[in-house]
Amino acid sequence: MNNNNPEFSVDLQAPDISAYKQGNTGIEYVSTFDSGIEGPHVMISAVVHGNELCGAIAVDHLFKQNVRPMRGKLTLAFMNIAAFHSFNPEDPTKSRFVDEDFNRVWTTDTLDGPRDSVELRRARILRPLIETVDFLFDIHSMLISPAPLMMAGPVQKGRDFAADIGLPKFVISDAGHKNGTRMRDYGDFIKADSPKNALLVECGTHWAAETGDLAIKSAYRLLDVMKMIPADLAEKFGPKAQELPVQTFVEVSGPYTVQSEEFKYAQSYVGMEIIEKQGTVIGDDGGQPVTTPYDNCVMVMPSLNIEKGQSAVRYGRILAS
Length: 321
Hints:
Helix content is 21%, strand content 24%. By secondary structure, the protein is α/β, with parallel strands linked by helices. The chain has an eleven-stranded mixed sheet.
């Protein structure tokens, strides 16, 4: 087990979202605005993990700017409210969830099953609304990885959607996690033959100022691409043309699953390092070397404090452009 936790600087402040509690959907902290004009139902979701403040900052910004869709419907949602309200900047890693990860419960079997938790109760309330959404944009951040990522899912339509948004630089195509299904992979969002689509944007490290900035810009960029806001609003708060990078698409081939209680990395990895040679040692697992499976292997979202049976890092291949 790796116990070398870094010290975290909390440069973001959790916004006061109490004004949005009542909402207008019958679900607390969820509001839907209908333009009355034909168009898609777009949902921007925040605080699926309670200590990821950037999404709350972005949604709060949209509310404060009185953003309303020019076509279709726009839903603004704060998700894991119980976890978010427990956030303490003096101990910022502790409020990811209350009972279980809200972003690992999104299968029909789990939602219809007998289990109970704070997160499942909230997910069951939100589920009927989410099933009406055409395009989901779920805003997140990461513990140690500073390079922002767009998580596009395993099918081509997700990568195409990410390319339309045009930021951040790295787009990750993956099948999610073995220990549960993400909201962005729920239902029709992940079906190749469905027009519905979803993205999960990781805006950077949890509490860095630039993470909040990117969350705001990405939300306005989404609404601009969906032709739901006027150009002047997108120009004011969205990314400038020069801020749209040449994107790099990475396909995750699989995780490295820890086999012992004595795993440690060969050096400090923060994510998106490209390891040039196959067979390069990147860690030690109970005395056994852990090596890269192929040339130009991308280290995707390495984890801290990994226990036996958990994923230490996911390996990725750069896709041809």
